[in-house]
Design brief:
Largest sheet of chain A: 5 strands, mixed
Distance between the termini of chain A: 54 Å
Number of domains of chain A: 2
Order of helices and strands of chain A: HHEEHEEEHHHH
Distance between the termini of chain B: 47 Å
Order of helices and strands of chain B: EHEHEEEHHHHHHHEEHEEEEEHHH
Low-confidence stretches of chain B: none
Strand content of chain A: 5-15%
Strand content of chain B: 15-25%
Helix content of chain A: 40-55%
Shape of chain B: globular
Largest sheet of chain B: 5 strands, antiparallel
Strand order of the largest sheet of chain B: 4-5-8-6-7
Mean pLDDT of chain A: 89
Largest interface: A-B, 37 and 33 residues
Strand order of the largest sheet of chain A: 2-1-5-3-4
CATH class of the largest domain in chain A: Alpha Beta
Oligomer: heterodimer
CATH superfamily of the largest domain in chain A: Beta-grasp domain
Chain lengths: 200, 325
Amino acid sequence: MEKKNSYSRRFFIKASAALGALALVPKYVSSFYRDIKALIVPVKEHINLTVSVNKKPYTMQADTRSTLLDLLRENLQLTGTKKGCDHGQCGACTVHVDGERTLSCLTLSAMTVGKEVTTIEGLSEGDDLHPMQEAFIACDGFQCGYCTPGQIMSAVACVKEGHTGSVEEIKAYMSGNLCRCGAYNGIVESIQKVAQHETI
Amino acid sequence: MRPFEYVKPKDSKEALRAKTPTGAYIAGGTNLVDLLKKNIAVPHQVLDVTQALSDKITLKRSGIEMGAMVRNTTAAINPTILEQFPLVSKAILAGASPQIRNMASIGGNLLQRTRCPYFYDTSLPCNKRAPGSGCGAYNGENRMSAVIGYSADCVAVHPSDLCVALAALDATVVVQDAQGKKRSILFKDFHRLPESAPQQDNTLPEGALIREVYIPKNAFHKHSAYVKIRDRDSYAFALVSVAAALQLDGNRIVAARLASGGVAHKPWRWLAAEQFLAGKETNATVFAEAAALAVQDVRPLAHNAFKVDMLKGAIETALQEALQA
């Protein structure tokens, strides 16, 4: 997706000279200068970024428009994180950013530089599943499985935040994750199971 | 999404200087990224202000100051806010999902756009999105729309819960304009009514930044409640919501605050009902009279007449809950 630059060398020399001259004039035309500059200087639509995912740094060039979700799935092939609605309504794309549950579809990848991203792939340690993953299997916390990575990431955060006092509280604090199969009861049970275990 | 340049200014001065007329500030991104994807917001430049703006909550002698970059969750669980301004926490926790509250900023919460479906569907008319195209909801599907303060040009409602609490508590918004000058805007003057220019949600000057939101100290911390009625129990926008706060002397009301979301283009204060409550005793009859006084100015549209009774009930419930809080 390399973008060809359509401006000639001569155009650039002329434009730079014009801009240089404009830069010298008093402050009241500086806003005009800024507008002209926005019109003729090509906008940088790609950025180089380093993002830390599951404790591993990745350096790449990305479109400024790319969301963290697209970066994970398309650039890093970490397809465990799912794209449901892509508009922040379903929670399927939930990941942890600096330990807090976040919607990766509403996060620009450029804004995650310097932060630690944890996805469903980073939850288990080697072949040992995370207790929440074990609980989802034991309690039938899923049917088709599409919302499950988001549910599990959200559930882990829900326990960590301490919102497991009652079924109502768990449901309220898991309301950002929709399940079209309706595995909600199993999801609540999974969370209760992990929460109980953690308080013992 | 249209191409844009991404910039991350180090401080507010740099942010104000770097912003081009077609630039947009981004904080939590929970509303803007959605608008970018739908080509409703088409900036050529996106300025990430997460580093430039304060994320501190500071208790001062006369009130509390929340930096524009304070995340909604951070504010909702802040011990000082929970103790002295619990209405703020209650309102925040009634909104969105935990994920969105973790991301969304206080400043951005004030600036979020309406959730009117006509605004989001680019194939339909909407004066807020495309000025002059008409208001699709005024004579269309307006179940979720306003019941007061609207015009034939726009019947959209402001979606925020936090802003209802801030309106009730007479907050001020500290803004910094493109020239770097700081000033305070009273919360009641921050959001506008649609009139004939619904494309303007608020009075924030062009290119300006919200720096802080300030809430003056008050005596409402003992008795406050936020009641939100919606289509599902959690993670939905309000059909109607009510923030109620009472300052009591025994069972006599010294002062009352009542504000609503889901009813108007801006968080709506029920001033006549507040005045009525001052000096009265706390009982169900007084609360019912206050609620009746509030809804007498309400003018529902074709599909939202249900909001009148719902609002009346929500005001009574909120006052009761505030009393028992």
